[in-house]
């Protein structure tokens, strides 16, 4: 190893260093963990509301747990975590319907012109609400 501590080319890394092992950050960030407990013996998440269990698969995420909460316990989810799932109060002026409509029309016009589309493209079914 060189004076600065860097490895030289062809030098093996010594596995027995005294550097501390930094653990993987496994902090539970999702709000679903407030509504589920994890049973390590069975490797399953258990819903605190209805006791339904969900097997934890390797490399799985919280998507299925959130889907369960939204479909089966939406009332509890909205009450306890309303600020995470829905906007409160009226939308700010920057996102008002009038402002969005003007911006959308301008962007649509730019799209039609810059991509040489016919104006009739807006009559396609994909443009209908």
UniProtKB/TrEMBL annotation:
<feature type="domain" description="BED-type">
    <location>
        <begin position="27"/>
        <end position="80"/>
    </location>
</feature>
<dbReference type="Pfam" id="PF02892">
    <property type="entry name" value="zf-BED"/>
</dbReference>
<dbReference type="GO" id="GO:0005634">
    <property type="term" value="C:nucleus"/>
</dbReference>
<keyword id="KW-0804">Transcription</keyword>
<keyword id="KW-0479">Metal-binding</keyword>
<keyword id="KW-0539">Nucleus</keyword>
<keyword id="KW-0805">Transcription regulation</keyword>
<dbReference type="GO" id="GO:0003677">
    <property type="term" value="F:DNA binding"/>
</dbReference>
<keyword id="KW-0862">Zinc</keyword>
<keyword id="KW-0863">Zinc-finger</keyword>
<dbReference type="InterPro" id="IPR003656">
    <property type="entry name" value="Znf_BED"/>
</dbReference>
<dbReference type="InterPro" id="IPR052035">
    <property type="entry name" value="ZnF_BED_domain_contain"/>
</dbReference>
<dbReference type="GO" id="GO:0008270">
    <property type="term" value="F:zinc ion binding"/>
</dbReference>
<protein>
    <recommendedName>
        <fullName>BED-type domain-containing protein</fullName>
    </recommendedName>
</protein>
């Amino acid at each position: 190893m060189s004076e600065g501590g860097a490895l030289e080319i062809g030098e093996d890394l010594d596995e027995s260093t005294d550097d501390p092992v930094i653990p993987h950050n496994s902090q539970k960030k999702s709000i679903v963990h407030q509504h589920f407990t994890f049973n390590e013996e069975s490797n399953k998440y258990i819903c605190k509301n209805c006791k339904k269990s969900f097997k934890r698969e390797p490399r799985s995420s919280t998507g299925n747990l959130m889907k369960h909460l939204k479909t089966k316990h939406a009332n509890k989810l909205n009450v306890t975590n309303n600020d995470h799932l829905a906007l409160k109060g009226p939308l700010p002026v920057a996102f008002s319907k009038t402002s969005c409509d003007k911006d959308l029309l301008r962007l649509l016009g730019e799209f039609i012109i810059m991509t040489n589309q016919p104006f009739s493209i807006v009559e396609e079914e994909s443009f209908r609400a």
